[in-house]
From TrEMBL:
Its main location: Golgi. Residues 1-116 form the PA14 domain. The keyword Translocase does not apply. Belongs to the chondroitin N-acetylgalactosaminyltransferase family. Residues 333-349 have a biased composition (Acidic residues). This is Hexosyltransferase. It is found in: Golgi apparatus, Golgi stack membrane. It is a single-pass type II membrane protein. Signal peptide: none annotated.
């Protein structure tokens, strides 16, 4: 791949179809692609960052929403002009790659290699001051946009619109159309720890994370300049070596080779580019010499395509061959060096060469890198060490397979009246021993005239367990047999109620402005959603800085309850007092905090993740830093906290409610203690990061137990 400012390259396509492009770089980069071989038609397709602080690891194509292009139709045997712009500071592992894939679900991006690239202009006989041949395109010579003179927008991907945010506005599908779509089956996951003895605060170890699709961009990529824990490497290692272990530097005469593990055992090629002073046009640093590309297939060779030579490749471990112990110990001792050379993995013993500084630029320097999906290295364990990583990502191919089966059954029952418009959200809770639970949320067209939404739990049953024998006569399922293949079924007693009442319970004391902000936020939530099925319960510990009851009375919230209690602030007691006022045991309690910014879909998120007798919900909130706001969200995910908790009133009563005796004069730990008892009573706890769900930074001055008294006059 030719890179520079701009790259003077064109792409030669050997077969027609719809493609999707992606770019990866450290730091920023832009991919511009023309609709033909004319530079004048180049348009921006994908990019890494606009603010100068964004970057990716080598071959990491899905970190930012902007990295991936929309589908592009390319014709066989036609040439397409493209440019790559790359900017790099004095830190990190400088690199830039472009990948492509046929626009089909589940396919991975392959780095575009030289079999599909030719030079736009042969510069081999030109001096560096010869620049007349360089095309003047919008990529590098366009006018400065007007918006660059104004304040830059924040770089958090989570701020970009997502169809999940407003999905609740679409009318729900007729429930009768979903009856008997799938056979019923027992839902009894093996990871439930009912009656299992759990030591104090050890419930954290029994909470598992769900996988989501499509990417909800809850990963805090804008915070990874300070915190790179997502990559599972030690900070000291990354500071010293960066991400060079995911790259293979080609050997040169009298040059020590750099060997790095390749995740897939194959190599594609990419050339490094850098910015020159005064933005002087840069020649390609090297030509790529990869092995023949496995995909897309080439039908014929062309004189316009650069010749390829076999690339000498050293043996590397596949990711699947790396043991768990090796993954958990990245700083383990390297393999012994072989006689006459160094070990492939001895890079920790080598003094780093800062940027491979050279007196003269070596135009033949090349390296190889492959597409790297760091998400596949993550597990569903509740990782308490990394507070910038987002929700786990569910593979596209798995989603397509499950939904194809479901849509076939849905239309089989309803006469083919439904067309899938969009996959809004799919959440998977994995249980490899018995089966996987999915929450599927789809936007459907009904009879070609009306758009409806579907939001249901389904179950992919993998194995038959002992408890299922008792359900042998259940309609639609023969439980006495072992299935030859997984069975997609409707889990019994796992349906969420669409209009159930949600009670927000909040204890307060002398927090006037925050109380007023909370009431205003609840008014806004009601105004935007038109949802009347929620209630505010404020337990006031003798606040003297405002009349809380009057503020509630003058508000437009659909319903509220005001409870006044004497004495010092007690969070556990305040929550319990609020819950005790709820008469309907089949409604949802949401134990809340005061300093929260809520997304508009918070009510539906609470409802669909709370199922009576089955599920409780502990959403992960993003804790904003000092000076940050929902519009400029710098901060981290509160991965340790379980204080924001949704549960049915009946389940809350069953486990004994809050521990008001032990946590009478203190708070901190009462959420973990409650979690222990929730799990011991056989409930699952759903744990997800929610988009646009923030905890404001606030001063703790005067909170909470100091006895308020008026200052003496004089």
């Amino acid at each position: 791949l030719c890179s520079g400012n701009p790259s003077l390259c064109s792409s030669y396509v050997l077969y027609a179809g719809d493609f999707q492009f992606a770019v990866s770089s450290d730091d920023n980069s832009e991919l511009w692609l023309s609709s033909d071989d004319s530079p004048l038609n180049a348009r921006l397709m994908a990019y890494v960052g606009k603010l100068g602080s964004e970057w990716t690891a080598p071959g990491e194509f899905t970190k930012f929403r902007s990295q991936v292009s929309k589908s592009v139709h390319l014709m066989a045997s036609r040439r397409y002009y493209f440019e790559i712009l790359h900017k790099q500071d004095d830190k990190g592992s400088d690199h830039v790659e472009v990948g492509w894939r046929p626009f089909l679900p589940g396919l991975k991006y392959e780095v575009i290699d030289s079999a599909y690239i030719s030079l736009y202009t042969d510069e081999s006989s030109l001096k560096m001051n010869h620049v007349d041949h360089i095309p003047q395109t919008l990529a590098s010579h366009g006018p400065v946009p007007a918006e660059t003179h104004t304040r830059s927008k924040h770089g958090a991907d989570m701020l970009q619109p997502d169809p999940r945010d407003t999905f609740f506005n679409i009318p729900m599908i007729d429930p009768s159309h979903l009856e008997n779509v799938l056979p019923t089956c027992l839902y009894s996951p093996t990871y439930v720890v009912k009656d299992f003895p759990i030591a104090r605060y050890q419930g954290l170890q029994f909470v598992y994370l769900s996988f989501v699709y499509p990417n909800d961009f809850t990963r805090l990529t804008h915070m990874e300049r300070e915190n790179k824990c997502f990559y599972r490497e030690s900070p000291i290692y990354l500071e010293k070596f960066g991400f060079y272990k995911y790259m293979k530097m080609d050997e040169e005469e009298d040059d020590r080779p750099f060997f790095f593990p390749n995740p897939d055992g194959e190599f594609s090629c990419v050339i490094r580019g850098v910015w020159e002073k005064h933005q002087h046009p840069l020649r390609p640093i090297a030509t790529a010499r990869p092995p023949p590309a496995p995909t897309p297939p080439s039908a014929n060779s062309s004189e316009n395509v650069l010749p390829t030579e076999p690339l000498r490749v050293t043996s590397y471990l596949h990711t699947s061959e790396i043991t768990e112990s090796q993954q958990q110990r990245p700083d383990m001792d390297p393999e012994p060096e072989e006689e006459g050379g160094i070990s492939e993995y001895s890079y920790e013993d080598v003094e780093p060469r800062p940027g491979w500084a050279e007196e003269a630029i070596n135009w033949q320097r090349t390296f190889s890198v492959n597409s790297m999906d760091f998400e596949t290295l993550r597990s569903d364990w509740n990782d308490l060490r990394c507070n910038v990583s987002g929700n786990l990502q569910l593979s596209e191919s798995e989603v397509v397979d499950v939904l194809a089966q479901y849509m076939e059954k849905l239309n089989e029952l309803n006469g083919g009246i439904y067309t899938l418009l969009r996959i809004i959200n799919v959440e998977k809770r994995r249980d490899s021993a018995r089966g996987n639970r999915y929450l599927i949320e789809l936007e459907l067209m009904e009879r070609g005239r009306k758009v409806v939404r579907l939001s249901e739990y389904i179950y992919m049953l993998l194995h038959r367990g002992r408890v299922e024998d008792s359900l042998e006569n259940m309609e639609g399922v023969t439980w006495g047999t072992v299935y030859a293949k997984p069975l997609l079924c409707q889990p019994v007693m796992l349906q969420w109620k669409k209009n159930v009442m949600v009670h927000f319970v909040i204890p307060v004391k002398n927090q006037a402005r925050w109380v007023q902000q909370f009431i205003s936020d609840m008014e806004f939530l009601h105004r935007e959603t038109k949802d009347n099925n929620f209630n505010i319960i404020i337990v006031d510990f003798q606040s003297e800085d405002m009349d809380v009851e009057q503020a509630l009375r003058e508000s437009s919230v659909p319903r509220y309850e005001y409870l006044r209690r004497e004495g010092n602030f007690e969070r556990s007691a305040g929550l319990q007092i609020g819950v005790d006022t709820i008469e309907d045991s089949h409604s949802i309690v949401f134990l809340c905090d005061l300093h929260i910014h809520f997304p508009l879909n918070i009510l539906e998120n609470i409802r669909k993740h709370c199922v009576e007798g089955k599920l409780a919900f502990a959403p992960i909130v993003m804790r904003l830093g000092c000076g940050s706001s929902p519009q400029e969200p710098d901060g981290y995910w509160e991965v340790n906290g379980f204080g924001l908790f949704g549960i049915y009133k009946s389940d809350f009563d069953k486990i004994g409610g809050m521990n008001t005796e032990e946590f009478k004069d203190r708070w901190g730990g009462e959420d973990w203690e409650l979690l222990d008892r929730v799990l011991q009573n056989g409930l699952e706890v759903e744990r997800l990061r929610l988009r646009n769900f923030f905890h404001y930074y606030h001063s703790k001055r005067g909170m909470w137990n100091s006895q308020s008294s008026k200052a003496p006059k004089g």
